[in-house]
Design a protein that fits this description.
By secondary structure, this protein is of the alpha/beta class. The chain folds into three domains: 44 residues, lambda repressor-like DNA-binding domains (434 Repressor (Amino-terminal Domain), Orthogonal Bundle), CATH 1.10.260.40; 132 residues, 3-Layer(aba) Sandwich (Rossmann fold); 130 residues, Response regulator (Rossmann fold), CATH 3.40.50. The chain has twelve helices and twelve strands. Helix 1 packs across helix 2, helix 5 packs across helix 12 and helix 8 runs parallel beside helix 9.
Amino acid sequence: MKKHQTTIIDIAKELGISKSTVSRALTGHPSVHEQTRDKVLQLANELEYQRNMFSIGLMKRASRTLGIIVPEFSRSFFPQLIIGAQERAKEAGYNLIISQSDESYETEVSNARVMLAHQVDGLLISITRETNNFDHLKLFQRKGIPIVFFNRVCDEMIVPKVIVEDYEGAFAAVEHLIARGKRKIAHLSGPESLSICKRRKAGYTAALAKHNIAFDEDLVVHYDLAINKVKFYINYFLNLKERPDAIFCINDPTAIEAIQLIKKTGLAIPGDIAVIGFSNDFASSIIEPALTTVEQPIKEMGRTATQLLLDQIDRDVANWKAPTVVLKTQLIVRDSS
Protein backbone atom coordinates (compact mmCIF):
# COMPACT_ATOMS: atom_id res chain seq x y z
CA MET A 1 0.00 0.00 0.00
CA LYS A 2 1.31 3.44 -0.95
CA LYS A 3 2.20 5.54 2.06
CA HIS A 4 0.12 8.68 2.48
CA GLN A 5 2.18 11.84 2.07
CA THR A 6 1.34 14.49 4.62
CA THR A 7 -0.23 17.65 3.18
CA ILE A 8 -1.16 21.04 4.61
CA ILE A 9 -4.74 19.75 4.77
CA ASP A 10 -3.68 17.10 7.33
CA ILE A 11 -1.91 19.71 9.44
CA ALA A 12 -4.85 22.12 9.21
CA LYS A 13 -7.35 19.42 10.32
CA GLU A 14 -5.15 18.33 13.22
CA LEU A 15 -4.76 21.86 14.55
CA GLY A 16 -8.27 23.09 13.65
CA ILE A 17 -7.02 26.00 11.52
CA SER A 18 -7.33 26.93 7.85
CA LYS A 19 -5.11 25.66 5.05
CA SER A 20 -4.05 29.22 4.24
CA THR A 21 -2.89 29.77 7.82
CA VAL A 22 -0.80 26.58 7.66
CA SER A 23 0.66 27.66 4.32
CA ARG A 24 1.58 31.09 5.63
CA ALA A 25 3.10 29.59 8.79
CA LEU A 26 5.26 27.21 6.77
CA THR A 27 6.57 30.02 4.58
CA GLY A 28 7.27 32.33 7.52
CA HIS A 29 4.60 34.92 6.74
CA PRO A 30 4.61 37.68 9.41
CA SER A 31 0.80 37.72 9.70
CA VAL A 32 0.79 34.37 11.55
CA HIS A 33 1.02 34.52 15.33
CA GLU A 34 4.25 33.11 16.73
CA GLN A 35 2.48 30.46 18.86
CA THR A 36 0.48 29.25 15.87
CA ARG A 37 3.58 29.13 13.68
CA ASP A 38 5.45 27.11 16.31
CA LYS A 39 2.57 24.59 16.54
CA VAL A 40 2.42 24.23 12.76
CA LEU A 41 6.18 23.71 12.44
CA GLN A 42 6.24 21.20 15.31
CA LEU A 43 3.41 19.12 13.85
CA ALA A 44 4.88 19.34 10.36
CA ASN A 45 8.10 17.92 11.74
CA GLU A 46 6.29 15.12 13.61
CA LEU A 47 4.29 14.16 10.52
CA GLU A 48 7.43 14.38 8.31
CA TYR A 49 5.76 16.96 6.10
CA GLN A 50 7.77 17.95 3.05
CA ARG A 51 6.90 21.11 1.19
CA ASN A 52 6.28 20.89 -2.53
CA MET A 53 8.99 23.30 -3.62
CA PHE A 54 7.94 23.06 -7.26
CA SER A 55 4.42 24.26 -6.44
CA ILE A 56 5.81 27.03 -4.23
CA GLY A 57 8.07 28.01 -7.07
CA LEU A 58 5.14 28.29 -9.46
CA MET A 59 3.31 30.58 -7.05
CA LYS A 60 6.39 32.76 -6.64
CA ARG A 61 7.35 32.54 -10.34
CA ALA A 62 10.64 30.99 -9.21
CA SER A 63 11.71 27.39 -8.70
CA ARG A 64 14.74 28.21 -6.50
CA THR A 65 16.52 25.73 -8.75
CA LEU A 66 19.52 26.16 -11.01
CA GLY A 67 20.62 23.81 -13.76
CA ILE A 68 24.16 22.84 -14.70
CA ILE A 69 25.21 20.90 -17.82
CA VAL A 70 28.77 19.60 -18.19
CA PRO A 71 30.24 17.65 -21.12
CA GLU A 72 31.62 14.71 -19.14
CA PHE A 73 32.29 13.17 -15.73
CA SER A 74 35.20 10.92 -16.77
CA ARG A 75 37.89 13.11 -15.23
CA SER A 76 38.00 15.09 -12.01
CA PHE A 77 37.74 18.57 -13.51
CA PHE A 78 33.97 18.88 -13.88
CA PRO A 79 33.02 17.07 -10.66
CA GLN A 80 35.28 19.48 -8.75
CA LEU A 81 33.70 22.41 -10.55
CA ILE A 82 30.21 21.17 -9.71
CA ILE A 83 31.16 21.02 -6.03
CA GLY A 84 32.03 24.71 -6.14
CA ALA A 85 28.81 25.56 -7.98
CA GLN A 86 26.69 23.53 -5.58
CA GLU A 87 28.30 25.15 -2.54
CA ARG A 88 27.46 28.65 -3.78
CA ALA A 89 23.94 27.65 -4.87
CA LYS A 90 23.24 26.13 -1.45
CA GLU A 91 24.48 29.25 0.32
CA ALA A 92 22.00 31.29 -1.71
CA GLY A 93 19.11 28.89 -0.99
CA TYR A 94 19.02 27.22 -4.39
CA ASN A 95 18.98 23.58 -5.44
CA LEU A 96 21.11 22.40 -8.36
CA ILE A 97 19.99 19.99 -11.08
CA ILE A 98 23.08 18.32 -12.56
CA SER A 99 23.38 16.64 -15.95
CA GLN A 100 26.19 15.61 -18.26
CA SER A 101 26.04 15.45 -22.03
CA ASP A 102 28.67 12.75 -22.62
CA GLU A 103 30.35 14.99 -25.25
CA SER A 104 27.20 14.64 -27.40
CA TYR A 105 25.49 17.67 -28.94
CA GLU A 106 22.17 15.80 -29.16
CA THR A 107 22.34 14.88 -25.47
CA GLU A 108 23.18 18.47 -24.59
CA VAL A 109 20.07 19.65 -26.45
CA SER A 110 17.99 17.03 -24.62
CA ASN A 111 19.46 18.08 -21.27
CA ALA A 112 18.62 21.71 -22.00
CA ARG A 113 15.01 20.75 -22.69
CA VAL A 114 14.86 18.92 -19.36
CA MET A 115 16.11 22.06 -17.62
CA LEU A 116 13.38 24.09 -19.26
CA ALA A 117 10.77 21.49 -18.27
CA HIS A 118 11.93 21.78 -14.65
CA GLN A 119 11.59 25.56 -14.92
CA VAL A 120 15.08 26.30 -13.66
CA ASP A 121 15.72 29.91 -12.69
CA GLY A 122 19.02 29.90 -14.56
CA LEU A 123 21.46 27.63 -16.40
CA LEU A 124 25.20 27.03 -16.08
CA ILE A 125 26.78 25.22 -19.02
CA SER A 126 30.07 24.06 -20.50
CA ILE A 127 29.48 22.92 -24.08
CA THR A 128 30.44 19.64 -25.73
CA ARG A 129 33.22 19.18 -28.25
CA GLU A 130 30.50 18.75 -30.93
CA THR A 131 28.46 21.87 -30.19
CA ASN A 132 28.47 24.50 -32.92
CA ASN A 133 24.76 25.35 -33.00
CA PHE A 134 23.42 27.23 -29.99
CA ASP A 135 19.71 27.57 -30.77
CA HIS A 136 18.80 25.35 -27.81
CA LEU A 137 20.62 27.76 -25.49
CA LYS A 138 19.40 30.95 -27.13
CA LEU A 139 15.91 29.71 -26.27
CA PHE A 140 16.70 30.35 -22.60
CA GLN A 141 17.43 33.98 -23.40
CA ARG A 142 14.17 34.36 -25.30
CA LYS A 143 12.30 32.96 -22.30
CA GLY A 144 14.05 35.38 -19.94
CA ILE A 145 16.08 32.67 -18.22
CA PRO A 146 19.70 33.74 -17.58
CA ILE A 147 22.56 31.56 -18.75
CA VAL A 148 26.26 31.54 -17.84
CA PHE A 149 29.00 29.71 -19.73
CA PHE A 150 32.12 28.38 -18.04
CA ASN A 151 35.34 26.73 -19.26
CA ARG A 152 34.04 25.86 -22.74
CA VAL A 153 32.11 28.90 -23.83
CA CYS A 154 30.06 30.16 -26.77
CA ASP A 155 31.64 33.31 -28.19
CA GLU A 156 28.58 34.28 -30.25
CA MET A 157 26.23 34.62 -27.26
CA ILE A 158 26.52 37.82 -25.25
CA VAL A 159 26.10 36.37 -21.76
CA PRO A 160 28.36 36.05 -18.69
CA LYS A 161 31.31 33.70 -19.05
CA VAL A 162 33.96 32.32 -16.71
CA ILE A 163 37.25 31.18 -18.19
CA VAL A 164 40.85 30.90 -17.04
CA GLU A 165 44.07 32.35 -18.38
CA ASP A 166 44.34 29.70 -21.09
CA TYR A 167 46.65 31.80 -23.26
CA GLU A 168 48.86 32.87 -20.37
CA GLY A 169 48.94 29.38 -18.87
CA ALA A 170 49.95 27.79 -22.16
CA PHE A 171 52.58 30.49 -22.73
CA ALA A 172 54.09 29.83 -19.29
CA ALA A 173 54.12 26.07 -19.87
CA VAL A 174 55.91 26.29 -23.22
CA GLU A 175 58.34 28.95 -21.99
CA HIS A 176 59.18 26.63 -19.07
CA LEU A 177 60.04 23.86 -21.55
CA ILE A 178 62.21 26.23 -23.56
CA ALA A 179 64.04 27.25 -20.38
CA ARG A 180 64.76 23.55 -19.84
CA GLY A 181 66.50 23.44 -23.23
CA LYS A 182 63.61 21.97 -25.24
CA ARG A 183 63.35 23.27 -28.82
CA LYS A 184 61.11 20.85 -30.71
CA ILE A 185 57.93 21.18 -28.70
CA ALA A 186 54.83 19.37 -29.95
CA HIS A 187 51.29 20.39 -29.05
CA LEU A 188 48.55 17.77 -28.75
CA SER A 189 45.44 19.94 -28.76
CA GLY A 190 41.69 19.37 -28.69
CA PRO A 191 38.98 20.24 -31.24
CA GLU A 192 39.70 23.44 -33.15
CA SER A 193 36.10 24.53 -32.55
CA LEU A 194 36.59 24.86 -28.78
CA SER A 195 37.66 28.29 -27.58
CA ILE A 196 39.95 26.84 -24.88
CA CYS A 197 41.88 24.99 -27.56
CA LYS A 198 42.25 28.15 -29.64
CA ARG A 199 43.52 30.16 -26.69
CA ARG A 200 45.98 27.50 -25.52
CA LYS A 201 47.33 27.03 -29.04
CA ALA A 202 47.76 30.81 -29.31
CA GLY A 203 49.79 30.81 -26.08
CA TYR A 204 51.90 27.93 -27.40
CA THR A 205 52.71 29.68 -30.67
CA ALA A 206 53.40 33.00 -28.94
CA ALA A 207 55.96 31.40 -26.62
CA LEU A 208 57.74 29.83 -29.59
CA ALA A 209 57.79 33.15 -31.42
CA LYS A 210 59.18 35.03 -28.42
CA HIS A 211 62.17 32.67 -28.34
CA ASN A 212 62.66 32.62 -32.12
CA ILE A 213 61.57 29.00 -32.54
CA ALA A 214 59.88 28.42 -35.89
CA PHE A 215 56.32 27.13 -35.81
CA ASP A 216 56.12 23.62 -37.29
CA GLU A 217 52.69 22.44 -38.42
CA ASP A 218 53.84 18.82 -38.16
CA LEU A 219 54.20 19.29 -34.41
CA VAL A 220 50.59 20.37 -33.81
CA VAL A 221 47.75 17.83 -33.80
CA HIS A 222 44.09 18.42 -32.93
CA TYR A 223 42.01 15.50 -31.68
CA ASP A 224 38.47 14.99 -30.37
CA LEU A 225 39.48 14.39 -26.71
CA ALA A 226 38.57 10.68 -26.88
CA ILE A 227 41.31 9.41 -24.58
CA ASN A 228 41.62 6.05 -26.38
CA LYS A 229 42.93 7.93 -29.45
CA VAL A 230 45.90 9.51 -27.68
CA LYS A 231 48.10 6.52 -28.52
CA PHE A 232 47.76 7.16 -32.25
CA TYR A 233 48.96 10.75 -31.95
CA ILE A 234 51.78 9.96 -29.53
CA ASN A 235 52.99 7.28 -31.94
CA TYR A 236 52.77 9.84 -34.73
CA PHE A 237 55.00 12.26 -32.81
CA LEU A 238 57.49 9.56 -31.84
CA ASN A 239 57.78 8.34 -35.43
CA LEU A 240 58.54 11.74 -36.93
CA LYS A 241 61.91 12.00 -38.66
CA GLU A 242 62.88 14.58 -36.06
CA ARG A 243 61.19 13.45 -32.87
CA PRO A 244 59.92 16.20 -30.55
CA ASP A 245 61.77 16.66 -27.26
CA ALA A 246 58.65 17.85 -25.44
CA ILE A 247 54.85 17.65 -25.70
CA PHE A 248 52.45 20.27 -24.37
CA CYS A 249 49.04 18.57 -23.98
CA ILE A 250 45.63 20.22 -23.99
CA ASN A 251 44.71 18.74 -20.60
CA ASP A 252 45.98 16.43 -17.89
CA PRO A 253 44.17 13.23 -18.95
CA THR A 254 45.84 13.56 -22.36
CA ALA A 255 49.23 14.20 -20.75
CA ILE A 256 48.88 11.29 -18.31
CA GLU A 257 48.04 8.93 -21.15
CA ALA A 258 51.00 10.30 -23.11
CA ILE A 259 53.37 9.60 -20.18
CA GLN A 260 52.18 6.01 -19.90
CA LEU A 261 52.63 5.42 -23.63
CA ILE A 262 56.05 7.07 -23.83
CA LYS A 263 57.33 5.03 -20.89
CA LYS A 264 56.40 1.82 -22.73
CA THR A 265 58.78 2.78 -25.56
CA GLY A 266 61.72 3.00 -23.17
CA LEU A 267 62.24 6.73 -23.66
CA ALA A 268 63.16 8.73 -20.57
CA ILE A 269 60.85 11.45 -19.25
CA PRO A 270 61.87 14.27 -19.20
CA GLY A 271 65.37 13.51 -20.54
CA ASP A 272 64.32 12.27 -23.98
CA ILE A 273 60.92 13.90 -24.05
CA ALA A 274 59.20 16.16 -21.51
CA VAL A 275 55.43 16.29 -20.98
CA ILE A 276 53.21 19.08 -19.65
CA GLY A 277 49.44 19.06 -19.07
CA PHE A 278 46.77 21.59 -18.16
CA SER A 279 44.34 21.65 -15.18
CA ASN A 280 46.14 19.83 -12.31
CA ASP A 281 43.79 16.87 -12.03
CA PHE A 282 43.99 14.59 -8.98
CA ALA A 283 46.08 11.98 -10.77
CA SER A 284 48.69 14.49 -11.93
CA SER A 285 50.72 14.31 -8.74
CA ILE A 286 50.64 10.51 -8.42
CA ILE A 287 51.55 9.48 -11.98
CA GLU A 288 55.21 8.47 -12.36
CA PRO A 289 56.91 10.78 -13.16
CA ALA A 290 54.66 13.38 -11.55
CA LEU A 291 53.12 15.64 -14.16
CA THR A 292 54.07 19.28 -14.64
CA THR A 293 50.83 21.10 -15.31
CA VAL A 294 49.01 24.41 -15.40
CA GLU A 295 46.73 24.57 -12.37
CA GLN A 296 43.24 25.99 -12.77
CA PRO A 297 41.13 27.24 -9.81
CA ILE A 298 38.42 24.69 -10.57
CA LYS A 299 36.11 25.08 -7.56
CA GLU A 300 36.45 28.84 -7.77
CA MET A 301 35.28 28.64 -11.38
CA GLY A 302 32.12 26.84 -10.26
CA ARG A 303 31.45 29.33 -7.48
CA THR A 304 32.13 32.33 -9.71
CA ALA A 305 29.86 31.07 -12.50
CA THR A 306 27.07 30.45 -10.00
CA GLN A 307 27.46 33.92 -8.51
CA LEU A 308 27.24 35.47 -11.96
CA LEU A 309 24.05 33.51 -12.56
CA LEU A 310 22.56 34.62 -9.24
CA ASP A 311 23.43 38.22 -10.12
CA GLN A 312 21.45 37.87 -13.37
CA ILE A 313 18.47 36.29 -11.61
CA ASP A 314 18.30 39.26 -9.24
CA ARG A 315 18.15 41.75 -12.13
CA ASP A 316 15.44 42.61 -14.63
CA VAL A 317 16.21 41.24 -18.10
CA ALA A 318 16.77 44.79 -19.36
CA ASN A 319 19.61 45.17 -16.84
CA TRP A 320 21.41 41.90 -17.53
CA LYS A 321 25.19 42.21 -17.81
CA ALA A 322 27.61 40.04 -19.79
CA PRO A 323 30.98 40.13 -18.04
CA THR A 324 33.73 37.68 -18.86
CA VAL A 325 35.60 36.73 -15.70
CA VAL A 326 39.12 35.45 -16.28
CA LEU A 327 40.62 33.45 -13.40
CA LYS A 328 44.37 33.11 -12.91
CA THR A 329 46.36 29.95 -13.57
CA GLN A 330 49.64 28.76 -12.04
CA LEU A 331 52.38 26.58 -13.46
CA ILE A 332 53.03 23.59 -11.18
CA VAL A 333 56.48 22.19 -11.97
CA ARG A 334 56.97 18.49 -11.29
CA ASP A 335 59.18 15.69 -12.56
CA SER A 336 57.80 15.26 -16.11
CA SER A 337 59.59 18.40 -17.32
